[in-house]
Automatic annotation (TrEMBL):
<dbReference type="InterPro" id="IPR002711">
    <property type="entry name" value="HNH"/>
</dbReference>
<protein>
    <recommendedName>
        <fullName>HNH nuclease domain-containing protein</fullName>
    </recommendedName>
</protein>
<dbReference type="Pfam" id="PF01844">
    <property type="entry name" value="HNH"/>
</dbReference>
<dbReference type="GO" id="GO:0004519">
    <property type="term" value="F:endonuclease activity"/>
</dbReference>
<dbReference type="InterPro" id="IPR003615">
    <property type="entry name" value="HNH_nuc"/>
</dbReference>
<dbReference type="GO" id="GO:0003676">
    <property type="term" value="F:nucleic acid binding"/>
</dbReference>
<dbReference type="GO" id="GO:0008270">
    <property type="term" value="F:zinc ion binding"/>
</dbReference>
<feature type="domain" description="HNH nuclease">
    <location>
        <begin position="262"/>
        <end position="315"/>
    </location>
</feature>
Amino acid sequence: MFYFTVSNPNDPISTEIIETNRRDLAFWQRLRPDDDEDLATSVNKICTRTGLSRKLIAACLFSICFLPHLPHFHKLVEKLGHLDMARINAITRAGAKIPTEKRELFDAYLVDYLTPQAEAQCLPQASSISAMMRKFIARHCPDDETSSVTAEESMRYRRNRKGGISITVDCTASEGTEVKAALEQMSKDKDCTPGTSLLHIIRGLPTKVVLNTYGSPDGPEYLEGGTWLSKKQTDFWKTRVTSERDMDAAQFAYTTAYQPTKEMRIYVKGLRTTCSVPGCCVNADNCQLDHIIPWDEGGPTTPWNLHPLCIFHHIQKTEGRLQCYPLPDGTVLFLIDGLPVISVPNGPLSQSNKTWGTKFGKYMDRKIAA
């Protein structure tokens, strides 16, 4: 039977958290005001009795009202009891931005993503769930891009205590990724601070920025750094593709050296968006590539034996306080407090997210088997 670790029927802590989630959901359902009640008075009444913030109260009450508009997801939540109110609130907040005609599709998308696909699978963190919802909005609601920025409010200056000036620039996620990469590359080229790097770029000093997109040449879907591309962004980035790499070939690449090749690094970063330890949200760009089976114990340098680990968890693994093993399907088995936990890849090259170059029959066989 497939289940998330939080739904493990044989673990007393998991059983208790499921009961807590269901009790919390029932609690907010009971507190739902009547339709003709005054909103502010209702929130104040709950705030006085619970000590919770008005913002949290409003979010929870909205979730209770919005869940019936996602009937299949609502049924899944009540059946499994695996989601806390924080995750539910994040989902309903995003769901409110989905056009009415797309909610049925969004409902099915949520059920597919939040139904376990393996035994003892780790429940996705709130950040992963948010990324999944951004992907849906980028793919299916291109006219509803929430990342757009108005020119009037896109830049702010503030004098800091040291006499300098702090500059805040708002831009889309893909634009931010490009700006960040350019500043980091210039800092590396000239061995200078990000502020000086910005001046160098403004003054016309050249720097070469390489950004990886995942998808096909005619349809990039994901930009390195954590951005699922909308239709408009896809049309822009496909004009900037200067070279191609075969990620199917990179999947089986091998080197006798300790350090992985550039293609291996790109492939492994495409499999996972965060540190692979269950519950860790450190971005894969800020992680080290670790040999799951240690190099000094005969572990090969090849993608199936590599995964991103943040510095904290890398130290834990090196010290023997964290154990993990590669599995044939590309997932990683962790042993945490003696309990097995499956870490499933969630990046653009993972089975659940890769849609380009996929044959219909194989795709449907995979979905049916899951």
